[in-house]
């Protein structure tokens, strides 16, 4: 279990760092999936099998929503996957913007969305284990990385300056595209409490000190503010080597 714990934490950390330097929309979402799989393995390494399955279910719902929204954006932006050519898409895709941001917030573990119920439970129960400060710190850092790449994706795609790519807003009038997205958005809102009641009929009481209890929310909030303040800056030349190293997934494909 110690080996699985180490591998899962390193998987979460690697995928989070790589996603921050990635510009391919599908790769960012795929890396976030890898990060959440690391989270599930982390839960299993602590012996929390039911929680890993619970996170698998909630993650399936909002990640399916993320991939569908990404498909609509790629289709509407002239079949490009590079988020640098997006920017200001919230004007052309208001509904998809709302749904994708809902999925992103759920992924980050914002309270009362689907991802919060499973992710926060894993984090709080992990805090009860005596693995030492390093494991806890790495877990919170990995949580922060999830928020960082999600905010960056949202900013570059929907909020930031126009990137120069083509944009067709006809996608939102196609109900076969938008229909499943709206349904999955609804499940991303309500599936958290429903699955909690189904999986854990008895209430779960977790006693933790205040700084650990609020640790996850604190890191999510700080990461949100940090990435919003960094978005005005461009990556300088000194980041080039780091960006290339991360863009090639730490040379793992080689």
From TrEMBL:
Q: Which Pfam families match?
A: NADH5_C, Proton_antipo_M
Topology with respect to the bilayer: Multi-pass membrane protein
Tell me where the transmembrane regions lie.
6-25, 37-54, 60-79, 91-117, 129-151, 177-198, 204-228
* UniProt function note: Core subunit of the mitochondrial membrane respiratory chain NADH dehydrogenase (Complex I) that is believed to belong to the minimal assembly required for catalysis. Complex I functions in the transfer of electrons from NADH to the respiratory chain. The immediate electron acceptor for the enzyme is believed to be ubiquinone.
Which InterPro entries did the record assign? NADH_DH_su5_C (IPR010934), ND/Mrp_TM (IPR001750), NU5C-like (IPR003945)
Query: Does the UniProt entry include the keyword Iron?
Result: no
E.C. designation(s)? 7.1.1.2
Q: Does the keyword Membrane apply?
A: yes
Q: Which GO terms describe its molecular function?
A: NADH dehydrogenase (ubiquinone) activity
User: What protein name is recorded for this chain?
Assistant: NADH-ubiquinone oxidoreductase chain 5
Biological process according to GO: ATP synthesis coupled electron transport
Its Gene Ontology cellular component terms are: mitochondrial inner membrane
Q: Which UniProt keywords apply?
A: Electron transport, Membrane, Mitochondrion, Mitochondrion inner membrane, NAD, Respiratory chain, Translocase, Transmembrane, Transmembrane helix, Transport, Ubiquinone
Report domain NADH:quinone oxidoreductase/Mrp antiporter transmembrane positions.
Answer: 3-140
Give the location in the cell: Mitochondrion inner membrane
